[in-house]
Amino acid sequence: MSGSIAQGTSQTHGNTHILHFMVRFPRSMEEVWPAVATPEGLGAWCTAVDVLQPHLDGEVSLRGLGSGRVTAWDVDRVAEYTVEGGGRLRFHLERAGEAESVLRFTHEFQGERASEADWRSRFERLIEVLESVQGFPGPEPMTPSEPSAPSESVEPLPGQFT
Fold it and tell me: Is 131 in contact with 3 (CB distance < 8 Å)?
């Protein structure tokens, strides 16, 4: 099964526009999360990321969308970015069975910058990217800055298991 994109909905309240999409993936939330919450993930399907501090009130800069703050962050579930000129982008992941997930996306913005067709195209790319790989790589493991000294044999303390 491949992913699917439900028909997007659009609302307008004065000069504020709100787009909603629901995207289904044949992947777990843990596999989809890096696509919406890491620079590499977002860069692969949405836009290049110049800065992303992955925590509440962290800085974010999404090329072509704007710079601002992380306004909601619940690891593996919710990533929300509010950027000047680009509005609020909310990615909310939910489980849909054992190995599937659903992304509920909201883009709230003013003016005429975004369109349903633009986001549908991005989500089609996201589905393609998730189908073509086994998930996005996580952060690189930290390596010590200095070489370790050779390990010495140490006798266990009394009561310590070996």
Answer: yes
